[in-house]
């Protein structure tokens, strides 16, 4: 995955309380080849009208929205099934960070494993940001993972945020869990050598 230290980019507000993973990517698409990109499946059904055409009123279908790398979403985003494809769809669409009052637990974990930064902010801050983004399409937000700070547009200020230390280090370096483990191979080998020396029967 790509390293993430600091991203400054336009943001889009996608409303929808308790938006589940089936809304993020319908289940019928999760067998598709990831190499061909999951971005075309992102919000597939809810961003289209009854005729199957893109709804011009859906936030990500509006002019300029393709530049967004940050989404503001509503509480409990990513609830429902544990499908990792929901994160793939967001990542393949170029989304690097999500801002919300809260996220589904498994979705939150999957996001961290794939370098997608979930930023939790108080509900009142998210509500004020939603109003600002609605009135000011293309407003820019900075998510600074290294500093643990998100800077909002207008007069909404800067706010601290945090993610687990292991995930933070991995995302800053652009490494997945296996690659992070491999960075400790010298210590692992030294431990195994000492363990076998102290317990020779383990090496039989």
TrEMBL record:
<comment type="pathway">
    <text>Amino-acid biosynthesis; L-leucine biosynthesis; L-leucine from 3-methyl-2-oxobutanoate: step 2/4.</text>
</comment>
<dbReference type="GO" id="GO:0003861">
    <property type="term" value="F:3-isopropylmalate dehydratase activity"/>
</dbReference>
<comment type="function">
    <text>Catalyzes the isomerization between 2-isopropylmalate and 3-isopropylmalate, via the formation of 2-isopropylmaleate.</text>
</comment>
<comment type="similarity">
    <text>Belongs to the LeuD family. LeuD type 1 subfamily.</text>
</comment>
<dbReference type="InterPro" id="IPR050075">
    <property type="entry name" value="LeuD"/>
</dbReference>
<dbReference type="Pfam" id="PF00694">
    <property type="entry name" value="Aconitase_C"/>
</dbReference>
<keyword id="KW-0100">Branched-chain amino acid biosynthesis</keyword>
<keyword id="KW-0432">Leucine biosynthesis</keyword>
<dbReference type="InterPro" id="IPR004431">
    <property type="entry name" value="3-IsopropMal_deHydase_ssu"/>
</dbReference>
<keyword id="KW-0028">Amino-acid biosynthesis</keyword>
<dbReference type="InterPro" id="IPR033940">
    <property type="entry name" value="IPMI_Swivel"/>
</dbReference>
<dbReference type="GO" id="GO:0009316">
    <property type="term" value="C:3-isopropylmalate dehydratase complex"/>
</dbReference>
<comment type="subunit">
    <text>Heterodimer of LeuC and LeuD.</text>
</comment>
<dbReference type="InterPro" id="IPR015928">
    <property type="entry name" value="Aconitase/3IPM_dehydase_swvl"/>
</dbReference>
<dbReference type="InterPro" id="IPR000573">
    <property type="entry name" value="AconitaseA/IPMdHydase_ssu_swvl"/>
</dbReference>
<dbReference type="GO" id="GO:0009098">
    <property type="term" value="P:L-leucine biosynthetic process"/>
</dbReference>
<feature type="domain" description="Aconitase A/isopropylmalate dehydratase small subunit swivel">
    <location>
        <begin position="17"/>
        <end position="123"/>
    </location>
</feature>
<protein>
    <recommendedName>
        <fullName>3-isopropylmalate dehydratase</fullName>
        <ecNumber>4.2.1.33</ecNumber>
    </recommendedName>
</protein>
<keyword id="KW-0456">Lyase</keyword>
């Amino acid at each position: 995955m790509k390293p993430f230290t600091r991203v400054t980019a336009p943001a889009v507000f996608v409303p929808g309380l308790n938006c589940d993973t089936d809304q993020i990517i319908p289940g019928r698409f999760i067998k598709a080849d990831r190499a061909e990109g999951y971005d075309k499946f992102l919000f597939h059904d809810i961003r289209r009208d009854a005729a199957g055409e893109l709804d011009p009123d859906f936030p990500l279908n509006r002019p300029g929205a393709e530049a967004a790398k940050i989404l503001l979403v509503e509480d409990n985003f990513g609830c429902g099934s544990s499908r990792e494809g929901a994160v793939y769809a967001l990542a393949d669409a170029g989304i690097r960070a999500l801002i919300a009052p809260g996220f589904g637990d498994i979705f939150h974990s999957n996001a961290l494993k794939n370098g997608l930064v979930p930023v939790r902010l108080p509900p009142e801050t998210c509500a004020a940001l939603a109003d600002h983004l609605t009135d000011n399409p293309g407003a820019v937000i900075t998510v600074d993972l290294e500093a643990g700070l998100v800077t909002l547009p207008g007069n909404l200020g800067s706010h601290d945020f945090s993610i687990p230390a292991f995930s933070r280090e991995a995302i800053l370096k652009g490494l997945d869990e296996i690659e992070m483990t491999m960075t400790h191979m010298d210590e692992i080998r030294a431990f195994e050598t000492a363990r076998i020396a102290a317990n020779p029967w383990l090496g039989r």
